[in-house]
Amino acid sequence: VKVKIPFGNKYLDAIFSVPEKKPTYGVILTHGAGGDMNFPHLVSLAAYLASHGVLCLRFTCKGLNVAYRTKAFKTVVEYLKLSDDYKLSGVFLAGRSMGSRAAASVISQLSQGDDDDGFIQGLVCLSYPLHRPKLQSKLRDEDLLLIRCPVLFVSGSADEMCEKQLLEGVVSKMKAPKKIHWIDKANHGMAVKGRTANDVMEEINAQVFAWLRENAQLQHK
User: Fold this and answer.
1) What is the pLDDT of residues 158-181, one digit of tens each?
2) From CA 123, how far away is CA 144, in angstroms rounded?
3) How far is CA 60 from CA 14, 154, 205, in A?
4) What are the backbone angles phi and psi of residue 16, rounded to the nearest 5°?
5) In sequence order, what are the residues at sequence separation of 6 or more whose Cβ sits closer than 8 angstroms to the Cβ of residue 24?
6) What is the C-alpha to C-alpha distance for residues 58 and 50, in angstroms, rounded to an integer?
7) Backbone angles phi, psi at 30, to 5 degrees
8) Do residues 219 and 90 touch, judged by C-beta distance below 8 A?
9) Alpha-carbon span 184 to 186, nearest angstrom
């Protein structure tokens, strides 16, 4: 289902992947610095989640400014929260690369404000860009350290923007419940020599869904 979400004086293009049964939970998904919501990984994940009963709303927001992308993400969260078509108990924010930075930023801002009503259940970071390539001294970890809801990282062990030991170091300092799933030998684009893209995506999709299921249940036992 294609929708246009009002954002300032513009609209954000978005697509709902809707499960057959009425969903209780949703995932809002966005892309990295390049590309858009039709990036193959996002399309694959959205279809997988919808086929397993999770509503997925993916959207395009062009713009390389994280603050701008964060604002857009917040708008989409509000839109889904107020939607009459889908009454959800909670939503998980997810993004790829720069999109996951924007998602983390939304959650860290909400967790500091008084408007944290528990609607956002957790965060999924696909290929979180912890640092620029070869610039490991400057870590983009400030938002991660403020987050309290559960966080899943899915990263390639050969990601040139997220060195394994550095991410493990940051994660050990986080106060939130967290998990890292390493895709062996994958780079930032999740390409692995000797494996097809579909094969890698199947691994990622299954991991994300299993984690969502655990954490959606945990919140509502």
Assistant:
1) 999 999 999 999 999 999 999 999
2) 10
3) 6, 21, 20
4) -90, 130
5) 88, 89, 90, 216
6) 12
7) -140, 170
8) yes
9) 6
Q: What is the pLDDT of residues 3-49, one digit of tens each?
A: 999 998 999 999 999 999 988 899 999 999 988 999 999 999 999 99
DSSP state of 198: H
Q: Is 144 helix (H, G, I), strand (E, B) or coil?
A: helix
Task: Return the structure tokens found at 107.
Answer: 């959650």
pTM of the model: 0.94
Name, in order, each residue with C-beta under 8 angstroms of 129's C-beta and a sequence gap of 6 or more.
32, 97, 98, 100, 101, 140, 161, 162, 188
- Please tell me the distance from the alpha carbon of residue 3 to that of residue 15, in angstroms, as a whole number: 6
Length of the chain: 221
Residue 84: which residues within 8 A CB-CB, separation 6 or more?
A: none
Alpha carbon separation from 176 to 57, 58, 105, 172, 218 (Å, rounded): 24, 25, 14, 10, 14
Q: How confident is the model at residue 221 (pLDDT cuts 50, 70, 90)?
A: very low
The structural domains of the chain, ordered by start, are 2-216 (3.40.50.1820)
